[in-house]
Design goal:
Largest sheet: 7 strands, antiparallel
Number of helices: 6
Bound molecules: uridine-5'-diphosphate
Radius of gyration: 17 Å
Helix content: 25-40%
Strand content: 25-35%
Number of strands: 14
Order of helices and strands: EEEEEHEEEEHEEHHEEEHH
Structural class: alpha+beta
Shape: globular
Length: about 240
C-alpha cells in the first residue's frame, strides 16, 4: 500500500489517501487541543498510545460482532482503515456524570447514570457541535430513521463491551464519543476510541487518566495515557 497526499488534517489526526481507493491511512499525532481549539499542546508518544489503545479496542469490538473501519497497523502511529462516508453526528455515551453534563444540567460529578444517556451532537466546527435530537438529524438529512436507530443500538452494545473490558483493568468509563460511517450501505464504527475521546477514571482512586488531565491541568498527561495503554493494550512497549 502506498501512502499518498493528506486528505484531511484534524486536531489530533491526519488522514491520508492511498493507492487503494477503498483504504485510508489514519495517523495519530502528538498534538492535542481542548475547548474548541483554544488550548493547544504537544505531548510526546501521545499518538502512539492513542493509536495502540484504539487498535486494541477496535479489535475487541470486532471480536464481539461490531463492524469497525479498522484494518491493520501500518506503523506504531498509523492505522489502515476502510474509507467510509462519515455520518455527521458525534455520539456521546454517558455512564457517570462528568464535564458539561454537570455544568448545564443538575447532575453531580460521579453520579451514576442508569440507563446510560446517549446524546447526539451535530459534528460541525462551524456551529460548535451543538446537541441535536432525532428530528433535527432527520431534518438536516444527517441520517435516516433506520440509521439513527442502528447507531443508538450499536452505541449501547459498544458501551457494554467496553465497560466490561475496562472494569477488568480497574478502569471506569464515565463517558466517551463515537463516530460512525457508511460502508456498502451499512453503518460501521469509525474514528478512534482513545484517551482523547473517552473519560477513563481509575476505579480505586477516581483519578482522571484521559484528556481531562490536559483540559484542567491535573498533572502529567503522558503518564496518564501511558497508564491507560499499560492496562488496556496487552504487552505494549511503554
Ligand atoms: N468528546 C470528544 N470530542 C468532542 C466532544 C466530546 O471526544 O468533540 C468526548 C469527551 O472526551 C468526553 C465525552 O465526549 O469523554 C463527553 O464530552 P462533552 O461533550 O460533554 O464535553 P465535556 O464538557 O464533558 O468535556
Amino acid at each position: 500500500m502506498i501512502k499518498q497526499e493528506a486528505l484531511y488534517s484534524g486536531k489530533a489526526k491526519t488522514v491520508y489517501k492511498t493507492d487503494d481507493p477503498e483504504k485510508l491511512i489514519m495517523e495519530f499525532r502528538n498534538s492535542l487541543t481542548a475547548f474548541d481549539g483554544k488550548k493547544k499542546s504537544e505531548a510526546p508518544k501521545k499518538g502512539y498510545y492513542n493509536a495502540r489503545i484504539s487498535q486494541t479496542l477496535f479489535k475487541l469490538l470486532e471480536e464481539n460482532g461490531i463492524k469497525t473501519h479498522f484494518n491493520s497497523m501500518l506503523s506504531d502511529t498509523e492505522m489502515v482503515v476502510d474509507a467510509v462516508e462519515i455520518v455527521k453526528i458525534e455520539v456521546i455515551v454517558r455512564n457517570i456524570a462528568a464535564g458539561s453534563l454537570t455544568k448545564k444540567y443538575p447532575f453531580k460529578t460521579g453520579e451514576k447514570l442508569d440507563p446510560p444517556i446517549i446524546i447526539f451532537d451535530y459534528k460541525s466546527d462551524e456551529f460548535g457541535d451543538p446537541m441535536i435530537n432525532d428530528d433535527m438529524a432527520l431534518a438536516m438529512g444527517l441520517a435516516t430513521k433506520a440509521e439513527l436507530a442502528e447507531i443508538r443500538k450499536l452505541s449501547l452494545k459498544i458501551n457494554s463491551i467496553l465497560i466490561e473490558y475496562l472494569a477488568e483493568r480497574n478502569l471506569l468509563l464515565p463517558d466517551f464519543k463515537l463516530e460512525f460511517g457508511r460502508r456498502k450501505g451499512k453503518i460501521v464504527l469509525a474514528d478512534e476510541i482513545s484517551c482523547d475521546t473517552c473519560r477513563f477514571w481509575d476505579m480505586t482512586t477516581g483519578e482522571s487518566l484521559d484528556k481531562d488531565v490536559f483540559r484542567f491541568d491535573k498533572g502529567d498527561l503522558v503518564a496518564a495515557y501511558r497508564e491507560v495503554a499499560k492496562r488496556i493494550v496487552p504487552g505494549i512497549k511503554l
